[in-house]
Amino acid sequence: MLQETKLNLRNQVIYFFSIYFLFSLKPKFEFFFPKIVEGYKYFHYCLIIWGALFFLLNFQFIISYFRNKLNHLLLLFFATIGITIAYNFTYLSAESIKTSVLTIFVIVIFLPSFQLLLEQYSEAKIFKIIFYPTFVLRVVVNLIGILMYVLNYSLFILDADNILYYAGVRYVELANGKFTFLLYGLYSDPNYSAIYSLSFIFLGLFFLFKFKYRSLFKKILIIIFLLLEFTVFALSNSRGAELAIYIGILFYFFLLIIRFVTKKSERNNTKKIFLKLLMFTLSFFVLNFGIKTVALFILEQNNPVRILIRQENNEYIRLGETTEKEMLKQYISTVDEVSINLEEIKTNTSIVKEDSSKDFGNGRFRIWRDALLLSTKSPIFGFGPDMQKNAAKRFSDIEVPEMYSGRAFHNSYILLYFSFGIVGFIVLGIWFIRVFLRLSVKIIMTENEFSFLFLGVVALMVSSSFIDILFVNNDFPQMYLYFILGVLMSGDNLKMHNKIENN
Q1: Lowest-pLDDT range, 120-124, 296-300, 462-466?
Q2: CB 317, CB 307: distance < 8 Å
Q3: How do 305-310 and 179-185 pair as beta strands?
Q4: pLDDT number for residue 103
Q5: Rounded to 5, what percent of the chain is helix, strand, coil?
Q6: Higher-confidence residue: 449 or 247?
Q7: Closest CA to 403 of 421, 391, 413
Q8: Is 177 helix (H, G, I), strand (E, B) or coil?
Q9: What are the residue ranges spanned by the domains of the chain?
Q10: Is pLDDT above 70 for 19?
Q11: Of 239, 205, 197, 235, the residue nearest 223 (C-alpha)
């Protein structure tokens, strides 16, 4: 009876990953329903308990998984996190400890998951059960965001702490006196939205070419999904995400050149792959530019609608069309919007996003400088996650203004170094280098549809140089990264299922 219960629980565990991925993508519905945050929190606790149950049911397998030659460094990384917590325990916040523990949780649960699931399901079934629900959510959220863009609809959300957030469309002044429009949609940052789209573009391409849908209708649905993701990606106007795709493609071209030189028997096939990748690159460039141009033209045809939402009393206020900054000052002392007639903005728009501040990188270099300077006070094991404000106050002898305000690092690698020190940075860095070298060799030797996933991972790693999305974030990109790496590595440890369910 007990054995049967364990088996049933194992059979249901795939739905844990489906629900967790879905949850990690959650749009900012709390903008409109602030009380939902409490529900998010308790639901997350339930998911963590479910994940812990998954760990216990597969304890032996997971332990052996992390003891193998490739993954044993991760055990050292976990130990480093433990030392960081112990070393800074007096100063750490509860949130920092939680984030540290969840960093371990995500790796332990998501990295070996695909290999475990292959014991019960085919590749196709795993991917479809886990990611189809996220596809549906992305379609809904993307359609809402695109509609808000087309209608020129912006929301300024003022929370109970007088912190200002944005949704819908936001205009930003550029260095050349022009303005560009950014699609926030139902997320608080267009860069995050772009990263989500980046991940789903390559995932969608994998679905399209790997599973070879027999139904024309299903093929069309996947293509529509991809077009929506491309549209959101373009309208987010994230230069970091765009650069990440181009660098990822260049890296892949490099691997193809090696494949062409070393595998003479596969040269004809390599040429075909090279041409396909070239066509994809050109298509991406044209589509990215074309979507921005057409969308901006449509946007300019509609009068802007600006709504201020005060969460404290659930008040909705339609802002004036001329002095937006002055209107906002009635409710908040500082805003980074410009005080200028919106009609003037409409006649001075640009799809090219230049730096809006005097220094290159829109202030990122100042943040990185201050973060690295503060890190010298605890270089070995770091300060722990989300502790920049606390650490800046502890070491007031150094001037790090960007840290006093608790600014995000806008760089996942610096965030990793600050949080877990040089030891954590080097240990995890060596593991990633070893994994990428091994996967690169696999791509060179046996290029297939899984290359889309690898290309997406490369782009994700590059984009993390400009935003806090990996290693310590415990959000969708981090979970996605380790799950996909587990997929790409699974052939090294377990015989892959050859059966693909055609649908």
Answers
A1: 296-300
A2: yes
A3: unpaired
A4: 92
A5: 65, 5, 30
A6: 247
A7: 391
A8: coil
A9: 58-117+359-497, 142-356
A10: yes
A11: 205
